[in-house]
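name: query_chain
kind: protein
chains: 1
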Amino acid sequence: MGRRGPGPADRPPAGVGDREALLGRRHPCHDARVPGRLYLGTSGFAYDEWVGAFYPEGTRREDMLAYYAERFPTVEVNYTFRRYPSERTLLAWRERVPDGFRFALKANQRITHTLRLADADEAVGLFLERARLLGDRLGPILFQCPPSLRYDRTLLERFLGGLPPVLAAMEFRHPSWEEARDLLAEQGVAWVVAETDERPAPDGELAADPFAFLRLRRTSYGEDELRAWAERLRPVLAAGRDAYVYFKHEGHGDAPAFARRLGELLAAERP
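structure:
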């Protein structure tokens, strides 16, 4: 799929209106009186080490997703970064989750790491063709860029200009990309806030235009840390913005426990 029509500098941001419609909140115009939706879950769900801690003893792998989806409204799928899931797998996932559940898929590495966002229209189109088999269960597509990729406004404009209508979020791991925040917001693409043990999340107000996407990937979270994240998320939701929040999967059921506790804290604080 080659580039079509005029370049990004000669036309309105491609797909922005369609991406706004996909948010499902634009008809109330993110009215501050309409609380945003909290999509809270984990990165992945099919882990044998969760049996006994999160899943009941004896739970089979093929039954894990249905059990998970009864307790959380979303999951981040990372293995799509390495390979494309089969049509059969995606259709099975769609059938095993309830209405309102959302899969956030990490974009394939060909887009972000091989092509490094350059001339990626065809690769993006192929990935989305498969992802859309999830139907209305498809949530945001996470484009996680390599740490070696430095800020390039022209590169980003061209990539975003060719992005089809889809909920999209971008994670940049080189500090030079900080100045790209406004461009992403203009194009209706979320800025990902991520933290690890080695790289804490920046302080301050969370980026939430058009929605918040938060990846909490530290080894452990104590009560005070979860309360701090609840405090930062509360104004996002109160302003009518949706928030997608995912805890790292490693550990014997720790991630579901962290997610459940954060949800409890937010439920207690919301009107």
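note: The radius of gyration is 18 Å.
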